[in-house]
Amino acid sequence: MQIPFNKTLLKKISKLAIPVMLSNLLQTLIAAIDMIMIGQLGPIEIAAVGLANTLRLFILITVLSVAGGAISMIAQAKGSRDQQQMSLVTRQSIISGIMMSIILGVIGYILSEPLLNLMNQGGELAAVVIGTEYLQVLFLGTPFLVLNIIVNKLMQGAGDTFTPLLLTITLVFLNVVFNYLFIFGWWLIPAYGVVGAALGTILARVILVVFSIWLFHSGKNVIQILAGTWRPNWQVIKDILSIGVPSGIQGIFRHASSLFIIGIVTATSLGTYGAAVLGIGLQVEQLIAQPIVGLNIASTALIGQEMGKWQVKSAIQKGNLMIVLGLIAMSILILPVYIFAEEIIHIFDPSGHPKIMEGSISYFNITLISLVLSTFGIMLTGILRGAGDTKPAMYSAIFNRNIVQLVFAWFLAFPMGMSYLGAFLGIVLGRFLDAILMSYFWWRKKWIQVALEKTAIYRTHLQNLSPANLAAFLHKVRGPLMAQSGTLEIVTADKVIYKTGNLEQVFKFEETSYHKA
């Protein structure tokens, strides 16, 4: 297994990954600041937003259906050095995001109250009323929430992770200022309470989205919107969704599995305190995983760009490198939690409740080491996404993180009498099988064919070639020519032109064969 360790590549990976990690941490900070501000209004308001955000999270996960496809396709277009294709993907990603956000916004607005009532069985009615008002304002602003995510993912996929970081820093600042003004009121602005938090969130994103679209039009970013139609290109939209929908489904199933696990753990001897134990454990794991998520996005950009210029061997080597880097990083990151477990638990629960302390320490002792196994899933999800193959992660999330994990968590906890320890072991087993299955999908290399089938050259010409001629063309023509710096691949109805500077090489296709013109 060849792994290309060199300073230049590692520096490139760091430049891609570190800004993403910081951006994700800042996004988490936004949610925390919102809750702190709302917390000053009272416990009912906190409960209302807690209920609303649980529902809103499912909606935001669905956004991955566009964002996941956008980041993959823009990375491949960047790798192929095709500015027109990058512009096309950008326009169609924005169009897809607007269409999806309108649908989600209307559905969410209508269903906010009945869904919150369903989630709040026996709870305070005021929480539903306040939560509904908060959610409905957010759903009215769904297009800006969605587009904010999409424009950031487009830049990250094209290799610019620094600009999204700057935009996120600005977003945090604007979010804090607007939330304060609209929640508590100031001068001519009345105090809107919880609804003010939704207004502040939307207004901050309106400003960032407008600026981002201007930036794309200005030619000052790697993403540029060139002259072209804004009409929907259904083939491109289909490609975006074929990559992104499995990512969205994967996210939904991963989130759902956490909710079901909480139900299992709270039915053990920990009781209600089991929810606190998992809340602490999952929050700590999420913080630990942020650098790995940064590497995940870097993987998508790297692999997508390599596949865009059809450098398959390099893509495999870089993919292996990213897996190794992820494993090393995760192994280092979990050590402080092992060493300072009690201190960390006390940060979340200053009272040091015996059940929460006992359960949390058991959780860390049993599951932390399995985070190293989770690294395979996290990294390979990003790597395979770069090739446009997101179905393996979806299959694994459905089978391992739900069916296997939940069945074994329940079986070990209750029939086997292991209580919450059995539930924690079920989580470990799900992660172990996820690592095995995702590694199998990587080494099987079907993702290479998936990446190829989404290209214009394959759909126009290569799919008609015999297997032998297809392999020969890719190995002897496309790969070597696209490896040359600056080479452009121009696909027309009757030929393919490879242009390097002033030199052109033309290839024509007849039935199942090809020849140089």
Q: What would the keywords be for this entry?
A:
single chain, 517 residues, mainly alpha, four-stranded antiparallel β-sheet, 4% strand
Task: Walk me through this protein's architecture.
Strands 1-2-3-4 form a four-stranded antiparallel sheet. It has three domains: 1-232, no CATH class; 245-454, no CATH class; 456-516, no CATH class. The radius of gyration is 24 Å and the shape is globular. It contains 19 helices and four strands. The chain is mainly α. α2 crosses α5 (125-140), α7 (162-184) packs antiparallel against α8 and α9 packs parallel to α15 (391-413).
Helices and strands, with pairings:
Elements lengths: L6 H33 L3 H20 L1 H16 L3 H37 L5 H16 L1 H16 L4 H23 L9 H25 L15 H33 L6 H36 L3 H28 L1 H8 L5 H14 L2 H17 L4 H23 L5 H26 L1 H8 L2 H5 L6 H17 L4 E4 L3 E6 L2 E8 L2 E4 L1
Antiparallel strand pairs: 1-2, 2-3, 3-4
